[in-house]
Please model this.
Amino acid sequence: MDLKHRSAGRLVLALLFAILLSGCQAFPDASAPSDLMGTGDLGLIVERATGSVLVINTSHHEVLGRISGLGDLSHASVVYSRDARYGFVFGRDGGLTRVDLLTRSIVDRVIQSGNSIGGAISQDGRYVAVSNYEPGGVKVFDSETLELVADVPATYTNEKGETARSKTVGLVDAPGNRFVFSLFEANEIWTLDMAGDSPEVTRYEAGAAPYDALITPDGRYYIAGLFGEDGLSMLDLWNPEAGVTEILSGYGRGEQKLPVYKMPHLEGWAIADGRAFVPAVGHHQVLMADMNDWSLIERIPVQGQPVFVMASPDNRRIWVSFAHPENDVVQVIDTRTREIVRTLEPGEAVLHMEFTPRGEEVWVSARDSNRITVYDTRTLEPVAQLSAEKPSGIFFTSRAHVLGL
Model:
């Protein structure tokens, strides 16, 4: 090969090398440090007294930062966007706040009512709905902009024949881009269909004073607890034309009902081996029902009035927290024997529990001890503690992919 051809060959090789080098530089150096992270093992912990939330990493038992300025969080809850990056915080003062878990900052905030009691995000992630005490009703917002999409006043005719507005409770998302909620004073259950061009409301008569509700994991049954009577109201969303039926009616018949210090929560209810475990209002019991016919099978005695009755993701154990004054313990029930296998002491004023997505750990908040205790669900032993200012609700981003939470 002559000099001319050798020079041309070297030029081609140099050009190819330059192109390859520029292409390689389009990708980051794998050894270089990076602040990039996913959101799958993140979560928010509500600090109720300071109007703030902690951003936490569940894998490392680590507090990543604090987001302040969220208003009254004395009764607060959180739902997540589909990508699990953004949390929507519902405050008691009617505040709806969209926070970014990665930048640990407030993105948007609106005061949408005078008194709010939680919310839900639609199946497709487009809408965020908020349940309000004052004025009674549900408002629906665009999840990207927090612009108002629908305002649904909870109107009914009271005993005097007057038009009034009811507190709304037990708001959940349901399949088909629907929301379902209960009206406390009106004794009704409503569905709000957001799938069409305009919102569509359907009303159903329920039992006395529904105070909270849940939806089964398959999205079929919406079940409202009743404060005005011993029992629950159930709406079969596969067969809504049948209306509401009463289940577990008169579960406290023949027993003295105790003063209720804190209303039980039905969210995160326990289902195991075809049976449902629910808290009994005004009784020191967890009720076990057969989900085939919703008949009462057994009453499991516990040490106080249950607030949360939650199953671990493998359904092997039921974890129960309690109302004042016995609210410094958590009792763990074996679902096969229905016996209490351990009484744990996470701290003073236990308010909330949250399982990691696969259930190897459970995080428990103790408000008056200013701490979160993490337990190994296999050994039932504590494995970590985190400090927090009057912590209450714990919400992991895995909720972004679960119906009804």
Observations:
- The first helix runs from residue 3 to 24.
- The helical segments are 3-24.
- DSSP finds one helix and 34 strands in the chain.
- The longest strand covers residues 127-134.
